[in-house]
Amino acid sequence: MPETSRPADVDVETYRQGSSRTRVTRVSTNAGTGRSFVLIAGIGVASTYFEFLAPLLAEEGEVYALDLPGFGGVPASGQSPTAAFFADQVEGVLDHYRLDDPVLIGHSMGTQVVTEVLARRPGLSHAVLVSPVVDEAESTALVQGVRFVQSTARESIHIALLAVSAYLLCGFLYFFEALPHMLRYRISDRIGEGRATLLLIRGEYDRPSPRRLHSRLVARARTARRWEIEGAAHCVVNSHAVGVARLVRQHVDDELAPKGRMPAAEAAVPPAAHADLSMVLGAIASRLAEWISAARHDEDGVERAKARHARVLWDAYRPGR
Fold first, then answer.
1. DSSP per-residue string spanning 126-150
2. Burial of 271 (0-12, 13-18, 19+ CB in 10 A)
3. Which residues touch 40 (CB under 8 Å, ≥6 apart)?
4. pTM beyond cutoff 0.85
5. Which residues are CB-neighbours of 280 under 8 A, at least 6 positions away?
6. Cys staple from 308: which of 93, 100, 186, 286, with CB 3.0 to 4.6 Å?
7. What are the CA-CA distances from residue 101 to residues 26, 87, 182 (Å)?
8. Angle at Cα 190 formed by Cα 186 and Cα 196, nearest 5°?
9. What's the pLDDT at 321?
10. Where are the beta strands (DSSP E) in the chain?
């Protein structure tokens, strides 16, 4: 975690674009760098995956973590859940908040959405693709299912619970409606359309995002760096958020080597600096409130619960009182 910290301002609101809704969790410490970060999660999941990464990046600038239509309890729009559709929603958020050259960070299927936005907006200078998918040689549902199971075996119970709860909120019907679009999207064919300088990150045991795919993407991108975090799997963006945040900061400052590996000890999220029973109970209570509100389609309740959870984690992990 950073050596100094500022009080965090957390705000959760829903952006509407026609029949589509995107929930936006904004985390700010008034860092004053002028930098902003937009975080886009993968299929079926939500901004919850960025619960550690968001406050780390907020030390550098304002963070916007998105729950796309159909995910995280946000109602589906009725439109086809393609990368192009989700990119429309991201662009709407960029315009709504008047973000000037934000750093887009996508995880898993979110990398497809980021790639699509970059192809449309050549003015964006930096972006990060964490665990990009899908490898064209393994683009069937069966093979991808096996790869995700192999990677999940390396994940923590915490991440497994995050995933299960997210998939339940998404609903299996919508998940399987979005899945074929994810499998068909050819990220290696689109990655060269954008002009941003890219950083590709994967975990050492990230089976859905193999090294050969990263090699292909780097070869086809205009400018790209590639880094691997030892000991991590597909959800490196959560389990090893400290390392991801460090790589992102160095990438945006153009101080990162073109290729490298980061030890797990430097990248993993450490124990909470200010953990106690009230913090643990507060985190559990806010997460339960979020799930229950989402199941009831109580958007105001979800927004309150997500903001409360973010503040609990911030208070627990910030380095100083």
1. EEEEES----GGG-SHHHHHHHHHH
2. exposed
3. 66, 68, 86, 90, 104, 105, 106, 107, 110, 113, 114
4. yes
5. none
6. 286
7. 17, 16, 26
8. 140
9. 41
10. 9-17, 20-28, 35-40, 61-67, 103-107, 126-130, 197-203, 224-229, 259-262
From the centroid of its chain, how far is CA 156? Answer: 17
* Residues facing residue 129 across a β-bridge: 106, 200
- Give the model's pLDDT for residue 276: 65
Q: How many whole angstroms separate alpha carbon 154 and alpha carbon 152?
A: 5
Contact 151, 205 (CB under 8 A): yes
Amino acid identity at 44: G
Q: Give the pLDDT mean for 285-307.
A: 80
Residue 12 contacts residue 286 (beta carbons within 8 Å): no
Structure-derived torsion over alpha carbons of residues 314, 287, 52, 48, reported in degrees to the nearest 10: -140
